[in-house]
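As a next step, the fold was encoded as tokens, giving this record:
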Amino acid sequence: MKLYYFNLYGRAECIRILLHLAKADYEDVRYEFHEWPEHKADEERFEYAQLPVLEKDGKFYSQAGAILRFLAREHGFYPEDPEQAYFVENLTEAITDFNTGLFKLKDLKGDERTQAFESFVKSTVIPCFTTWQKRIEGNTTLSGTAGPWRT
């Protein structure tokens, strides 16, 4: 099994952490940014011309969230109960929204960045952290269920 991504944490880090927790044997293939264009054209391996991609048993899997859920199910880190699975999916989508909003700030400068950051805090940070705090107060994890790594 191989995980292809850039030589940074980014979208593949959750996948790496899951594979580590699962004690899975895999090769962590990391590209430098200048190397990526020569590999990107491989449509069989990189169907969306983006990373991360997981290679497993001769098949290629793309999209970080889909890969993470696929491996979580395979290694027993995903709830079987539909309601508990909903909370995992809900949290995953909320984190994606959070990261998307944060990513939009990276290239802004000066007053534009300050205003965008203040808007991001009001529209995204406060609602997310408020919701997550409520879940923590009522449960052992943010997803609403204890995972298999808990005792």
Q: What stands out?
A: The helical segments are 13-21, 36-40, 64-74, 82-103, 110-138. The chain has a mean pLDDT of 89.
